[in-house]
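Can't paste images in this forum, so I'm doing it all in text. The chain is below; anyone willing to post the predicted structure tokens underneath?
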Amino acid sequence: MVEFLPGDFNHTETKDNHIAVCFDLQEEKMSWTAADAVDYKGFPADKSRTGGWVSAALILGIEICERLSTMGIAVNLVTYLVGTMHLPSSTSANIVTDFAGTSFLLCLLGGFLADSFLGRYRTIAIFASIQTLGIVALAVSVKLPQLRPPHCDITAANNNCKQANEFQMGFLYLALYMIALGIGGLKSSVSGFGTDQFDDKDDIEKAQMAYFFNRFFFFISTGTLTAVTVLVYIQDQVDRSLAYGICSISMFIAILVFFSGTKRYRYKKSTGSPIVQIFQVIVAAVRKRKMPLPFDVALLYENYPEASRIGHTDQFRVDTHPVQFSVSFLDKAAIVAEEDFERNAPAGSLPNPWKLCSVTRVEEVKMMVKLLPIWATTIMFWTAYAQMLTFSVEQASTMERSIGKFQIPAGSLTVFFVLAILITLAVNDRLIMPVWKKWKGQPGFTNLQRIAIGLVQSTLGMAAAALTEKKRLSVAKGMKTMSTGALPISVYWLIPQFFLVGSGEAFIYTGQLDFFITQSPKGMKTMSTGLFLSTLALGFFVSSFLVSIVRRFTGSKDGQGWLGDNINYGRLDCFYGLLSVLSVINFVAYLVCARWYKPRKPTIPSNGSSAEDKC
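Text version of the structure:
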């Protein structure tokens, strides 16, 4: 029989109370710190001193200046190339689309560097500085007379305007692609670093994060509006170098403001690049391509905790025999072989990921591959979009743009993009979604439906552009001379094409972003965002390719053809018609891919999976 001494119960109770107090203090301390985040010294981030709206606002400041600079340069660059550098319209259009496409494509490089080496803070700081230097170089390029050809009236019928030489174009290219490099690195990290300032495990901060996305989009729209109105006006009516100087100064101030929040920011450690993880699966599968798969998939390698595992699927099967069996090539990356583990490796060490990958990692790659058909069929929208920044602006430059004594800058017509986006979002939110919810019982269009609507509107936009251009050309041919001055046709004829494509962007942009984020693996959200942005890049590159092909097959030695050196002598309406036909074909292909695609269903925990849910 065990005998207790007097005071034992009090001692035990005191000890238990002490342990309970320690746990309470630890939980309270955890509530003070943000999950998975550290401060600038590397300690757990204190919520009262780091992150939140103050930090997010400092990051939004650099985003609005980036958008101001980027759009201020892109929307009016074609008029500079044609009017000042004396380049053909098709060549000028390709320079603009190549510049825009490279900017978005470099987002993949920026994301890779941020995830693997630099982190988001350093990536923003470095690439924002590169973009600022590029804008300064562009301002110098347009200011110094040695860096542009002699002034000449490019609209004259028999002009002998001298084109920019190789040195002048080389300096211009250097400035533009420095800016493109800066845009790519900055855009890949700024939204992610902004969301890092909110703790998604805190209900209050999670709600604030949703508002951050809305304000992020608002700041983008604000920057775009300022660019296509104020900056474009300064470029056309005052001095182009002054406008670029304003861009560079605003970027410099934004960088200083960004640095001022260094002690307030929350930083998250990088978990490695998804691009590397995808290549690891491919390399491991190629190495084991001759090895047979086990009959039981449970024998494949898996090291993820059961709660975060992705079950094996039979996606992307390669049938080696029509009856007996089928194999998945990527599954071979998870076949366990003796050489996958080091002989003298300590117990519990992980295998070389370039030789052996888990089933979950393989399934993540399968999920990304499954997105590719939808990804490919959305590129055509951005090809149509590219025309709004190039040929549509050049159309506007030849049309009547006067309101009394004030003349609207040709590049400012892109303001209808922003208006179309804002009107479409408001109508969709206040009118379409409530009606759709009552009719279908759903909160709104699915992401695939929104993409489809955007593709239809871009197709209609190209058809409207073809009809408008046919009308403009008939006016041009009816004039006795087409040498100088604006054509007697209002620039407002261009509004339908701007509005249709702009409204389509409101649907397809949100639809694509929603699709790629929700249908991708949790660990590859950055990669899926980069995949989305790559459709913009490829859309601009496809535009450049089509322009080159059309010019080659329809052009003549005297600079005429569908895309003539002077659009008044060309057949731009035929080019728009070609884009309309290609858009229809692409839309049919999209419908096939959308019907084939089976959306990923959210994982719903079982009734007994969480003790907290029962309490």
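The first strand starts at residue 33 and ends at 38. DSSP finds 18 helices and eight strands in the chain.
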